[in-house]
Amino acid sequence: MVPHPRIGPLALDRLGPSDLPDLFAWLDRDPVLNVYLMALVLRDALAAARDEYWAVRREGAIAALLHIGTQSGAVLPLGEDDAALRLLADHARQRLSFLPRRFQVIGPRVPVLTMLQHIARSGLRPRLERQQVYMTLDPAALPPFDRLPKLVPAQPSDQALVFESGALLRLEELEEDPRVVDPAGYRRRVEEECRDGHTWLWRDDDGLCFRASVSALTGDAAQLSGVYTPPGRRNQGLARRGLSELCARLAERSRAVCLFVNDFNAPALAVYHRLGFTDRAAWQSAFFDTSR
To answer: Are residues 143 and 119 located together in one domain of the fold?
Structure first.
């Protein structure tokens, strides 16, 4: 009889560079859904002091994974093994003191909910929770569109525009103004966006038409975030055209494009579906501010 894959002793292990082959193989089971973690691992090779990677192994094989960004505040759980996730969640609760006062738990819904249940034992509740849909696009499915050469990566000279539009985006999406709650950190992130070309802008004579960022990029997938059209310019097809152009550009480097969106954001969901995005997984995000 073949043993059930979720039967066997569990062991918690902090991963290091020697674990890279195992981790890459595990993440590569779904390189689109796991693109953000894959990009982090490719960037730092499990050697960045500011990031922790913890795995629960069952009989030597990875059963669940947890990324803890002690500087970024990102808590990213992954896996489908309930017992392994509970062990990781309890460990995450014990590591809360190493996180910044503002942190976030993001990932597939089941692992995130397991994390939140254990974090609640410490008396912490999220400032904000969002149920989301993780969506993916095969660029070959994009409908025809007029190409948009005016969509360009942000440059250092664009910092003022990226700063203001990004703050309005975050205020709308996450109900907080980064210019108020974390002005220094927010300004630093904007500088990095404009330096590294991760944010794309489309402007015309009337100002900003559309912006979006690429939060992770591998040969398998490009993950979008921060998709935004100014309120006064919505319902004019600008987001559809800007996204079409950006997805076509990203298809030159990646085999798929992905993103996650709030499940109540009907206008955005309609745009993504018209572009050919399909629903891939239930997603969840929870944002904490322990200073409140």
So the answer is: no
* Res. 103: pLDDT tops 80: yes
Cα-to-chain-centroid distance, residue 45: 19
**Judgement on whether residues 120 and 250 belong to the same structural domain of the protein:** no
In a domain, 47, yes or no: yes
Give residue 18's Cα distance to chain centre.
Answer: 26
| Number of domains within the chain | 2
Tokens for 211? Answer: 């912006």
pLDDT at 292: 66
Q: Is residue 289 part of a domain?
A: no
Q: For residue 264, count other CB atoms closer than 10 A to its CB.
A: 10
Q: In terms of domains, do 69 and 147 share one?
A: no
| pTM score of the predicted model | 0.94
CA 113 to chain CA centroid, nearest Å: 16
pLDDT in tens, 201-257: 999 999 999 999 999 999 999 999 999 999 999 999 999 999 999 999 999 999 999
CB 284 within 8 A of CB 106: yes
Domain CATH number, residue 196: 3.40.630.30
DSSP string, 99-152: S-SEEEEEEEHHHHHHHHHHHGGGT---SEEEEEEEEEE-GGGPPP----TT-E
Domain extent at residue 262: 139-284
Q: Rounded to the nearest 10 degrees, what angle do helices 20-27 and 35-44 cross at?
A: 160
Is pLDDT of 4 > 80? no
